[in-house]
Amino acid sequence: MEYLKLNTGDQLPQLGYGFWKVDPQKIPKLVEQAVEAGYRHFDCACDYGNETEVGQGIASVLKQGRCQRDDLWLTSKLWNTFHAPEHVEEACKKSLLDLQVDQLDLYLIHFPISLKYVPIEKRYPPGWFFDPEAEHPKMETAPVPISETWQAMEELVDAGLVKNIGISNFGTSLIRDLLSYARIRPAVLQIESHPYLTQEKLIRYCKEEEIAVTAFSPLGALSYLSLDMASQEESVLTQPIVKAAAKQQGKTPAQVVLRWGVQRGTAIVPKTENPERLIENISIFDFELTPGEMHAISALNQNRRFNDPGDFAESAFNTFFPIYE
Predict the structure, then answer these.
(1) Would the pTM count as exceeding 0.90?
(2) CB 95 within 8 A of CB 44
């Protein structure tokens, strides 16, 4: 495993296991298999609806002595309905309870989207709709400045509930604004990034500001096929340069793309429910892509964003809600 040193001095494992869209029933066993394979970084979120099962898996591996809590890196994310300062700690404590731990290694603002509060006892995870039973359900926003949410995030660090705080799905303008008032600077930015969406300017900006970057959906289209948000033809794994590099390196196309992700200096959080893929995905630290291979894979960039609220919010949640320019 390789690590990214954060601006707090902590070490973020460069490869993690992402739990978005992972079947809750399979998760406890998958956590055990992942730890056995060498994973120590687990990327969770309230909105994924499976933190309870992740917590069961974590509790099991700790009880069995397969690792210690200090060996693990647990990330969770503040959902859109909890942005108001008075709800941030409540949301964090719910994730802590579900994950069966006393402290998170990293807590991120999931989206720069503030929605009306939905009490935990009413519906959890709250999702995107304010009232799914309404005649015409839609997203309903709440005017909460990010500055107020961030101050509440900082207070989580003060209280010892969270070691590091960060952001997700933010662009340079929002980050620059946040840095103007942050008492505790964000340690990590999590964004969609893969060879079709290299985000080079944003990643370069974060490097200059000493903000580590984690790439979600590092294999691109594969995460979105089941949601009809991508087509099989959009898979980067079929690109000739990727297949050629895989043949040259004696690796799979997926391993080549994941290696490209870590070799460019980002952490990555691929997901799988396949135990064999678990091992395949982590087996990327015993080879290096050549500068020519790195350049050619980066040149596949199309600025193709699969996870865009400006698209899916309207089709899925009856609300036009762009957040990217």
Answers:
(1) yes
(2) yes
